[in-house]
């Protein structure tokens, strides 16, 4: 298995898979889309459940490797194409913080946002995976305030992950539109890869809605 093996991205527009596609574009990776119409429920049908039993996107296949979970996909892809410069090397002092802030997305940020979205009382701080919402978000704000990216001047795959996350969470009012978050998300949204995929997503989403009779 080599980096010349084409990557299959299991995909649906305007979902978490959008960020994985933007990352593939940023990496210059060879890839194909396996498109699922989530409006028609294709992600819950048997063919895809053999790929990801949870019926979630994104997932990727690269040679014999099948990777699910958004955080794992970002780490895997950025490490697969180190020449793109989006991942710190193992001996880079940024490697530990890089992994920390990628893992933080799945372990703290998303659980906090789901509780907020569902209007659920969080668990007591001693049992909560994210302490409390304000503490979780405050840690992010402090890191991003060092800017312009998570680790200063050089963008990494972690910034693609977080830039996408802030774009959609601020859109739905789950994260307040603080200047540091707005500016950060805007930097990622202004990148050509983001612009290309956003346009393609709008077109694909419209096609899926029409096919599902919506």
UniProtKB/TrEMBL annotation:
Pfam families: GST_C_2, GST_N. Keywords: Transferase. Residues 4-85 form the GST N-terminal domain. SUPFAM superfamilies: GST C-terminal domain-like, Thioredoxin-like. The keyword Transferase applies. GO terms for molecular function: transferase activity. CDD domains: GST_C_8 (cd03207), GST_N_GTT1_like (cd03046). PANTHER family: GLUTATHIONE S-TRANSFERASE FAMILY PROTEIN, GLUTATHIONE S-TRANSFERASE-RELATED. This is Glutathione S-transferase.
